[in-house]
């Protein structure tokens, strides 16, 4: 319970983060708790209304459509696992209170994405990716490394990640069955949030990453999305 209280102070109420300086050990414990919640399905939500609230499905999905929607929403959930790990890795290594605050706020808002996607996958009689712990650890390592390089580069990594996610979600909106109005509503809201988070990173001081880094990030993302669709 005391770990949960620490996490609430750091992630659920941004103004409180400026009132107390946590030690590195404190932050490790907080992020360990947050990582467990992220991977095993109990992240702290913001309390926003779910995008599917009030939406009624008037046309049932065929089995083929259900499998497509299930796979795509599983990929989206895995992508949010990666995003949370990246934010946590950056937050652990930054020396800037402002950067830590901005990343904590964005990560908190994206907890909603985790919950929305996981619930939608279950509604489609599917499961989240069995490889989520791997996605989390790999992305956490990348986030820590990016943070060690420097805050502006770390923010640049966040901005580029979010830009790629927006394009990725655009492609999902094209692939999702037209009759799957609930999944489409979730993906559309996620797209808006990701674009906003990219803007926040840029306004906080992100640099534009070299083209080779962007391509490498894209290649890694393709591996993750291809595996998560099925596993």
Total number of beta strands: 0
Average of per-residue pLDDT values: 85
What is the distance, rounded to the nearest whole angstrom, between the alpha carbons of the first and last residues? 33 Å
Number of helices: 9
Q: Classify the helix fraction into a percent range.
A: over 70%
Strand content: under 5%
Radius of gyration: 17 Å
Low-confidence stretches: 1-18
Largest sheet: number of strands, sense, barrel closure: none
Based on Cα principal axes, name the global outline.
globular
What is the H-and-E element order? Answer: HHHHHHHHH
Q: Which structural category fits the helices and strands?
A: mainly alpha
Plain-language structure description:
The chain has 231 residues and is mainly alpha-helical. It is built from nine helices and no strands. It has helices at 2-12, 14-17, 24-40, 63-93, 97-123, 132-149, 151-175, 181-204, 211-230. The longest helix has 31 residues, at 63-93. The protein is globular, with a radius of gyration of 17 Å. Residues 1-18 have low confidence and may be disordered.
